[in-house]
Every structure is written in structure tokens, then in C-alpha cells.
Design goal:
single chain; 12 helices; 2 domains; 200 residues; alpha/beta
């Protein structure tokens, strides 16, 4: 495959931590190894997946029962912890500028998502959040902050943020074409998956 690849968060996690999926993704990388991701993805991994590995390590020292560990694993995910105000503040300050600089792209995504005939719950949340963020951008006060509901709206737009971040000549590598395909279509970018190739 001769494509430059822009990794979404899950693709980065799978490539680094899951050997089977790493092999599949490795075969998709072009010979010049043109791969990239966004700082937003790096933040998600640091405050989500890696943070949970540390929590799991600590949990293992507290209990000897497999059932307790399994229950704990079900209670966490590798999405970022959203109550960390310092992280949210830094992230949202940067995102406020990013949304302003790419307002037209987010407007195109919003318009296309609203045209879908049967959007799922996640897409509906994304539509609502994009509407609120774009409305906020046109507010003279432009009160982006680390308080709700702004943080919730930003998290709901993660896939859109990653897609807009990708250079135009990169395909966005993901395992969630249901959500990335319409987003990418709206801004004339390519969504490509490795998910089906790893299933047996």
C-alpha cells in the first residue's frame, strides 16, 4: 500500500501495544514510512490508556482475586479522564484556537452529519456539540473554558478534531469507519481501516 497514514488514537494504541494489529498496520505503511498523528491523540493516550495501565498495576498489588481485577477492567477505558482540570484547561485553550482556524471544516462536517438519515447516538452527540462549539466561536465573548459544558462538547468531537488535524495528503487510519467515513467525506479526506484485516 502506497499511502501516507495519519493514525487516530486507537490505531496508535493498537500499533504500540497489540502485536497482531501492529503487524497488520505495519504492512499498510508505505516504504518511506510516512506516518503521523496529532498532539491531541498523544494527550488521549497519556491521560487514558497509559494512565489506566498504571492504575491496573497498582490494583494488582491490592487484590489477589481474578474476579476483582476483571470487574476493575470493565470499569475503566483508555479514554482520557475528563475531571483533570489542568489537562482540560490546556487542551481547551489550544482547541479554541484550532476550532477558530478550521471553522469552515467543522461547519462542513456538521452539515454532512445532519444530512445522515439514521445517525446513531454518538453522531447525534457530535452534531449537538459541533453546533454548540460553532455557536460559541461566533459569540463576541468566546468563553471557551475548562468548565462544563465546553469540555464535554470537545470530547464529543474527538473524531472530527483528529480528521481535521490530518494533512490533506494523508489517509486517516482508524478502526471506526462508521464514524470516520462520513466525517472524512465531508472534508474530502480519506478514511482507511485495518480492522477487518485483523479479524479471523
Amino acid at each position: 500500500m502506497d499511502k501516507k497514514l495519519f493514525f487516530d488514537t486507537t490505531a496508535v494504541v493498537d500499533y504500540i501495544f497489540k502485536p497482531k494489529k501492529r503487524n497488520t498496520i505495519e504492512n499498510m505503511i508505505d516504504k518511506e514510512r510516512n506516518i503521523a498523528t496529532t498532539k491531541y491523540t498523544q494527550m488521549e493516550i497519556k491521560k487514558g490508556y497509559l494512565n489506566n495501565l498504571c492504575l491496573l498495576y497498582n490494583k494488582l498489588s491490592e487484590t489477589n482475586t481474578l474476579s476483582a481485577i476483571c470487574n476493575y477492567l470493565h470499569s475503566i477505558s483508555y479514554t482520557p479522564y475528563r475531571k483533570n482540570r489542568n489537562i482540560l484547561s490546556t487542551c481547551l485553550e489550544t482547541l479554541a484556537d484550532f476550532f477558530e482556524q478550521n471553522e469552515s471544516s467543522f461547519e462542513k462536517i456538521l452539515t454532512h452529519l445532519k444530512s445522515l438519515t439514521t445517525p446513531d447516538d454518538e453522531t447525534n452527540k457530535r452534531i449537538t456539540s459541533l453546533e454548540e462549539i460553532l455557536k460559541l466561536l461566533n459569540n463576541p465573548l468566546n468563553d471557551f473554558s475548562n468548565k462544563t459544558p465546553n469540555n464535554k462538547h470537545c470530547w464529543n468531537c474527538t473524531d472530527a478534531i483528529i480528521a481535521v488535524s490530518a494533512p490533506n495528503d494523508y489517509a486517516i487510519l482508524n478502526n471506526n469507519t462508521k464514524h470516520f467515513n462520513p466525517i472524512c467525506k465531508a472534508i474530502n479526506k480519506e478514511s482507511i481501516t485495518y480492522q477487518d484485516k485483523t479479524k479471523k
